[in-house]
Write a structure and sequence with these properties.
The chain is built from eight helices and 13 strands. The chain is an alpha+beta fold.
């Protein structure tokens, strides 16, 4: 296994399996052909145009109407076909993060409609005499995605109605019990994009990355049950786990690889895939 393998895995998809999903003449997602055939049974909500694209019905003229109708269809699909259930957390449907939302969808069906999801990932690090260390969380065993895998100190999807900063403060409090004043010192350091298939559709995701230096005497403590515990690891050990194992949640490997590059810990002199890795951290559908 190698650093580049994780990037390749996070970008494994075949776009020919999907039709563009269009709202107000804007492509906002991708819908698999078999899902599109199911959606054709809901003509009050969806129109499948000559097997070339899927549109929301033009009579749905407001974000609220669109969101309500898509939720209703998603509930029926879950009941009759076993598609993902609604989870009660809303994601904005936009092409770019700063755009006005055309609608919102439940987090559970984001990949079913192939819409872009956003999230925040925080590298919590400590400077010690023997070098940089990273706080690494272990995901709870009952998590739906990647149970028991290693994770960033703080990470979470970006819900509708919150700024990235407010979401970071919320997630920092819930996942690691980080005081607001300390969490507010997290520094934005860029974004990672990838596009991968999952069981039901496509994930063209954007992860906004932050570095947060925490004091040597700070120990994170989970408060929402999503992390079973934290370990402070030397950065060389973290790098080896990313390079040599599948111990981390799939997309967290990319966040840590980016951290290693930015801090000069992954060198083009010793990493033969360096250029492919740098370019591969910013891909899309």
């Amino acid at each position: 296994m190698a650093f580049l393998d994780h990037i390749t895995a996070c970008n494994h998809h075949d776009i020919s399996k999907f039709l563009p999903f269009v709202v107000e003449e804007t492509r906002v997602g991708w819908i698999r052909h078999d899902v599109a055939r199911r959606l054709a049974a809901f003509p009050e909500a969806f129109r499948v145009i000559r097997k070339q694209r899927v549109e929301l019905h033009p009579a749905l003229t407001t974000p609220e109407l669109r969101s309500t109708m898509v939720d209703a269809v998603a509930v029926e699909l879950n009941r009759d076909w076993g598609t993902p259930r609604l989870r009660g957390e809303r994601y904005r449907v936009v092409r770019r993060f700063g755009d006005a939302p055309l609608m919102d969808v439940d987090r559970g069906v984001v990949s079913l409609f192939g819409v872009r999801a956003f999230g925040v990932h925080v590298n919590g690090f400590v400077r010690r005499p023997d070098g940089l260390h990273l706080w690494i969380g272990r995901r709870a065993a009952d998590k739906t995605v990647a149970p028991g895998k290693l994770d960033n100190m703080v990470a979470g999807g970006q819900p509708a109605g919150l700024s990235l900063r407010d979401n970071l403060l919320k997630e920092a409090a819930e996942e690691a019990d980080i005081p607001p004043a300390l969490a507010a010192t997290a520094r934005p350091v860029g974004a990672i994009t990838y596009c991968m298939e999952d069981e039901w559709g496509l994930k063209p995701d954007v992860m906004y990355c932050y570095d947060l230096e925490v004091p040597a005497d700070f120990t994170p403590r989970n408060t929402d049950g999503e992390i079973s515990g934290f370990t402070l690891m030397p950065v060389a050990e973290v790098a080896a786990q990313v390079r040599d194992t599948a111990n981390f949640k799939f997309n967290v490997n990319l966040v840590i690889t980016d951290f290693l590059i930015r801090h000069g810990l992954l060198s083009p002199d010793v990493e033969p895939d360096y250029m492919e890795i740098v370019a591969g951290l910013r891909r899309g559908e």
